[in-house]
Specification:
32 strands, 6-stranded mixed β-sheet, about 575 residues, mainly beta
């Protein structure tokens, strides 16, 4: 069995770069060096933050059940951290990565080794910086090869990471600082990228276009990751059908689709077969990604493209067509195709077989209802504010706008320090009851409270969290990521959540299992969690501008009674604040 997965890894090496790993069975070791690199995109050059000089960064390829140690050395003059997005971090919250939540940042010139075990997970995840806006360029794929063969019989010719990102011509390092100072929104990105390449629709980018050669009759696996900072994306390939087989490292019931919708933070693994007849085409097919629009704020309305190039056809030697000659895939959804986004999400179901059971809690011990809001704050006296109408933008959960403290919350919790910086009284239901999705976006606007509030649950709690969108400023789709746990999306709907009515339509048989949920614009999503991972866990919108405004919270899972139900002690090299 081990030989089978080594062979798959060799195929992956053809598509991406994998760091060296130890030869010892059951463990992998990697070394990340955060450093600047000067690169050229969109007719200009600039320095960007990278890991090991690679953009996107190196792939972490491991086997299910392995122990992983990743030594991160900070070779730049600003603080940094790395988050292993979707890794459950069972009892190893010290390795989760969000700055000032589970660790203090890695200071310039210092190192920290993230140690964790990949347990009970298989498929596509990713890693990224988790401080300020560094994840604009510091990100890469995580591939977890399963102990057992894939639950589908189709032979796979190659596995190809597809990582969407955003590119800014100006430096991004100061964006959050500017937003915090003036309360304004960020500049929109200048391009979307596929594996760091914007594609030929952008200026000076014909050579910076992703091209994948395929063989007719072969089936390929795309491991798709949305690493964009602020935009949900639609993706499709001209004349090809995609089969969804896994999301967020959890297998799904396979289904065919002409396109997918993927939010920042999410992953989707799809199969496609290169089945186009050689007599009907040149052998060159456009793949494209463009935003799913649910905001009134300025956004990047461009499209990134790449190409499938069939081996043994005219495409092998042809020059890429001029942009004005290109046609996007006809089934690529339009930017405001809410119907497609809803339909796609509704098709997702856990595989739910004896080998891969769906362990959704049928009953719950606790329900927490959280409103998600964008807000306006009056400008403080003697300050300059650049938000709407001379005010400051903010964002909140249950009217609490999250402020990261100056120390690690997890460290303070573990050592049972008293703290005036954070508290355990996060409201577990909306402090004000109103027509959440029907109020006037501009005239009804609650001023949030600012602070660092969390809520705590006992180990083993069957927890339900209902996430409710509001119409303050505008109705918007929000990708909410919960650290430390997978969850089951048992219900979604539009309008205001009604427990008496909506629980009756819950899917408690095969709901999709994820770590990031798209809360629909003008609607709600209910997720259920087996809270069996002790520690402090961040919960936030994966639209980076919203997190910068405070659209975040946290919760604590207390230690259980048995030794294996307790948070492990902090490592010796844990960074200090």
């Amino acid at each position: 069995m081990e030989k089978q997965y080594c062979a798959v890894l060799v195929i992956l090496l053809l598509a991406t770069v994998v760091p060296s790993c130890s030869s010892s069975t059951g463990s992998r070791q990697f070394h990340f060096n955060v450093q600047w690199k000067n690169i050229s995109r969109l007719c200009s050059r600039k320095e960007i933050l990278t890991v090991n000089g690679e953009y996107p960064g190196p792939t972490i390829a491991v086997n299910e059940g392995e122990n992983v140690a990743i030594r991160v050395t900070n070779g730049v003059s600003i603080n940094t951290t790395i988050h292993w997005h979707g890794i459950k971090q069972l009892r190893t919250g010290w390795a989760d990565g969000p700055a000032y939540v589970t660790q203090c940042p890695i200071r310039p010139g210092q190192s920290y080794t993230y140690k964790f075990t990949v347990s009970g997970q298989r498929g596509t995840l990713w890693w990224h910086a988790h401080i300020a806006w560094q994840r604009a360029t510091i990100y890469g794929a995580i591939i977890i090869y399963p102990r057992m063969p894939y639950p589908f019989s189709t032979p796979i010719q190659a596995e190809i990471p597809i990582i969407f990102g955003e590119w800014w011509n100006l430096p991004v390092e100061g964006i959050e600082t500017e937003m915090n100072k003036y309360g304004n929104g960020p500049n929109s990105s200048d391009a979307y990228t596929i594996n760091g390449l914007p594609g030929s629709l952008y200026p000076c980018s014909v050579r910076d276009t992703f091209i994948q050669t395929v063989e007719r009759g072969k089936t390929y696996m795309l491991r798709i990751i949305n690493a964009a900072l602020n935009d949900e994306l639609f993706f499709s390939i001209a004349n090809h059908t995609l089969t969804v087989v896994e999301i967020d490292a959890s297998y799904t019931k396979p289904f065919d689709t002409e396109a997918i919708m993927i939010t920042p933070g999410q992953t989707s693994t799809v199969l496609f077969t290169a089945n186009q007849d050689k007599h009907d085409s040149t052998g060159l097919f456009v793949m494209a990604a463009r935003p799913y629009l649910t905001t009134v704020f300025p956004f990047d309305n461009t499209t990134t493209i790449g190409f499938l190039k069939y081996k043994g056809t005219l495409a092998e030697n042809m020059v890429l067509p001029e942009p004005y000659k290109l046609r996007l895939p006809y089934h690529l959804p339009r930017m405001e195709d809410h119907a497609f986004a809803t339909s796609f999400s509704n098709q997702l179901r856990s595989l739910g077989t004896p080998k891969y059971p769906c362990s959704v809690p049928k009953r719950i011990d606790k329900r927490v209802v959280i409103t998600i809001s964008l807000n306006l704050q009056d400008c403080p006296v003697n300050q300059t504010c650049k938000g709407y109408n001379g005010k400051r933008f903010a964002a909140s959960m249950n009217n609490q706008s999250f402020i990261r403290p100056l120390n690690s919350i997890l460290d303070w919790h573990y050592r049972k320090y008293s703290s005036t910086q954070y508290s355990y009284d996060f409201p577990q239901k909306p402090p004000h009851v109103f027509d959440y999705t029907g109020v006037d976006p501009m005239t009804h606007n609650l001023n949030p409270e600012f602070g660092t509030k969390l809520f705590a649950v006992e180990y083993g709690t069957k927890l339900e969290i209902v996430l409710q969108d509001t119409s303050f400023l505008n109705l918007e789709n929000h990708p909410i990521h919960i650290h430390g746990h997978n969850f089951f999306i048992v219900g979604r709907g539009f309008g205001n959540y009604d427990a008496e009515k909506d629980t009756g339509s819950y899917n408690l048989v095969d709901p999709p299992e994820r770590n990031t949920v798209a809360v629909p614009m003008g609607g709600w999503a209910a997720v259920r969690i087996n809270a069996d991972n002790p520690g402090v866990w961040f919960m936030h919108c994966h639209l980076e501008e919203h997190t910068s405004w405070g659209l975040a919270a946290g919760f604590i899972v207390k230690n259980g009674a048995k030794p294996y139900q307790k948070l492990l002690p902090p490592p010796d090299d844990l960074p200090a604040c």
